[in-house]
Amino acid sequence: MRSVRARAALGATVVVAVALVGAGLAVLLVLRANLTDQAGLQAEVVAREVAGQLALDVPYDRLEMREEEDHPVQVTDEDGRVVAVSKDLEAISGTGTDQVTPAPSPAAGSSTGSGDDGRDDDGRGDDDGDDNGGHSIPGRGEVDSGEPDFSNGTATVDGDTADYRFASVRATTSAGVTLTVHAGAPLAAEQEAVGTVRGAMLIGLPVLLLVVAGVTWLVTRRALRPVEGIRREMAAITASEDLSRRVPEPGSRDEIARLARTTNETLTALGASVDRQRRFVADASHELRSPIASLRTQLEVGAAHPELLDVPGAVADTVRLQALAADLLLLARLDAGERPGRTTLDLGALVHEEVSQRTGDRIPVAVSVPDSGVFEVAGSRGQLARVIGNLLDNAERHAERAVAVSLRAQRGGVVVAVTDDGAGVPPDERERIFERFVRLDDARTRDEGGAGLGLAIARDVAARHGGRLTVDGAPEGGARFALWLPSAG
Length: 489
What we know:
This protein is α+β, with helices and mostly antiparallel strands.
């Protein structure tokens, strides 16, 4: 199934089906157990009533056995012989013996007073000598008070065969004869109730599952409707390549609404990235056009008039092209997500090294690095040297008489500050100067100024090293660029 709606509906239906089947089986088992226990209790009551009569030595043919209440009774002696049964009992099973024809035992007959004509063994009456006016006191036995034995079986009463729950209770007569009373209670009510519940479940379960599947399908369809709208809009954006379009955002506050907002934010970032890329290509083409045209002109003049070839100018244009190409290559690597190395280096030594190599600067650079303290950072030595060089180049370009660089520790990191005494940077332009190909002084020629990539490269490199590059006013009145990098370790 490729549809989320179908999978959700199927999953919900399966879960509900398993839950309902489990619950239904549990209900049926509990219902059957309760009804069976009730039938067993009824059978026990009947069995104990008959056992109580036997304990009082009531003759077998005078036992009251609730025949009218459909409770079959079978009485057996210690040898398993049937001595009494209820009326109209034609067959029985589940009580240990299937005999339904009484076969009185001699012991039982004597113990229950079967010779009840008032004579004793020598033929005389029983009025010859007791203290109760000639009336004998019947003996008393006992009924087993323990838990009766239960079993299931069948019985045929007056031609009708049914299932019964039998309870077996033992009774002892006054003569010491042990008899077992098997009394049954019908299980028809239990079977009818269980069958009714089972039938209702078999009919209701499929209907309920269809309802669950349908409701899940509709709810999932409604919930996923915004997703389909997002998909269609994204397909339209892909086909038109118009990154200014946005996907619809539902008014809810659920995951789909957050997905739509995130998608629009991604489209915004992608559009901005594409715009920057386009501007970058346009600006790079413009910046490359001037030195290439100048170099071509000089070479063409030199080819026609060798004596007029401006070799130093050609070399300067070539150097400028080389530097611009290096800047563009570094930006391309940074944009591609190139991660800097994790070499540990001493930032103070790197500053001294960069300053010592600047022998042709028009303004000497004053370096202030404390003798005490360790200024170790982790990163790419080449990229960090490029940042310091770009900051010094910018300061040399704008300074009047002084350029200074200093180091100090600050909040788990190292700060490299480069200051000049030039005109400074207006507060509202302090973020714009870090954009690519941006230069604020239009009076400078491109030969005197840079291409507007140095500060952009410096900030990108600082960010990829976990640091930051900011600008504010210097005490001397010029600009102060502060590079913060986290300390190594």
